[in-house]
Amino acid sequence: MFETPKPVLGNDKPAVVKSWDEWSPLKHVIVGVADGGMIPPGEPALDAKVPEDSDMKGQWGPRSQESADKANEQLDNFAKVLESRGVRVDRPTPIDFSAPVSTPDWENPSSFGCMPPRDVILTVGKEMLEATMSYRCRFFEYLCYRPLMQKYFEDDPHFRHTAAPKPRMSDASYRPDYLSDQIGVEKRLKWTAEKFFVTTEEEPMFDAADVLRFGKDLIVQHGFTTNLKGIDWLRRHYPDHRVTAVNFPGDPYPIHIDATFTPIRPGLIINNPERRLPDEQREFFHRNDWEIVDAARPAHNTPPPLCYSSVWLSMNVLMVDEKTVCVEASEVNQMEQFDKMGLEVLPIPFRDAYAFGGALHCATTDVFREGDLVDYFPKG
């Protein structure tokens, strides 16, 4: 019988929710856990994401206890490093991810996990928004964060807890073209350049990790996990923000923006050199005096075993403030680039956690950052 653990709270002081951007001083954060993580079963959205030569093809089931223990050791260390810098850390409450899940439209043999809270929860100002999600295996993942949301609701009278409408995720929401095991990278690149993704426009779908916060601007990646209807839903939900869609034609597996386009501080972004922002979209940043530079090359040629993220998790970093950045400890090239930019680099061992959902930005979501709402793009 699966026993639901109690949520792990950073301390007993009342929580205050507020975060407008990716770089203001971080004071309160959620860090994920690897308990019960699964290799998810095949489904339309997931199958399109897993590379054809991946060791995850055709596999699903519980990840080993040894791998979970190693991942949790690194996640716990990450939490301790943040706490040593004065950041309060909360942790989600895992559910039984091995249990089958279903709706009237579909059945799935299991869920996924709760290591990457960035995928599920989007914090914009005083609101924490539960994303629609686009994988069936992640349909109920929001439940892992409900104990924390309830605590923040009780503590902070100005906190808004919002859930985007859950999509039905019927077969109509996914393109059958992506069901083949042998599409090939060349065709994938052609399709992504044409903005032909696995998700259709049947209903709004978005993952929170496709959204970057720049004060009054939200930059949203259109790709596998976020469709145009999802971006339109965000525009309607945040009428006082500018919501700008971007895409990266060089990525054959475009999910989640934070290993492709990473703001460091006001006026500076690093961009994956294999997935450069198109010139016409780049102009929006340049006319507002933002510099976009190529990220350093990853230190590794392959991801860890049973990990469907790319080697570009090297640039999936967490800004503690404008002058301090957490980087995976083996990513020496990225650390050197940041050092030359004048940043204090905090090396965080994390490769054992990658397979459970990504790197340091993925493994966190903001609760509170100092700083107010600012317009960083006054020229529109």
The total strand number stands at: 19
Supply the helix-strand structural class: alpha/beta
Give the H and E element order: EEHEHEEEEEHEHEEHEEEHEEEHEE
How far apart are the first and last residues' alpha carbons, in Å?
55 Å
Round the Cα radius of gyration to an integer and report it.
19 Å
Q: What coarse outline follows from CA principal-axis ratios?
A: globular
| Helical proportion, percent range | 10-25%
CATH superfamily heading: L-arginine/glycine Amidinotransferase, Chain A
Largest sheet: 3 strands, mixed
Give the strand order, joined by hyphens, for the main sheet: 4-1-19
CATH class: Alpha Beta
Count the domains: 1
Brief characterization of the structure:
This protein has helices at residues 44-49, 65-84, 146-155, 185-193, 228-237, 279-286, 332-340; strands spanning 26-31, 38-39, 61-62, 88-90, 101-102, 107-108, 121-124, 127-130, 160-163, 211-214, 217-221, 242-246, 261-265, 268-271, 291-294, 318-321, 324-328, 344-348, 364-369. The chain has 380 residues and is α/β, with parallel strands linked by helices.
What is the fold's blueprint, element by element?
Elements: E1 26-31, E2 38-39, H1 44-49, E3 61-62, H2 65-84, E4 88-90, E5 101-102, E6 107-108, E7 121-124, E8 127-130, H3 146-155, E9 160-163, H4 185-193, E10 211-214, E11 217-221, H5 228-237, E12 242-246, E13 261-265, E14 268-271, H6 279-286, E15 291-294, E16 318-321, E17 324-328, H7 332-340, E18 344-348, E19 364-369
Parallel strand pairs: 1-4, 8-9, 11-12, 14-15, 17-18
Antiparallel strand pairs: 1-19, 2-3, 5-6, 7-8, 10-11, 13-14, 16-17
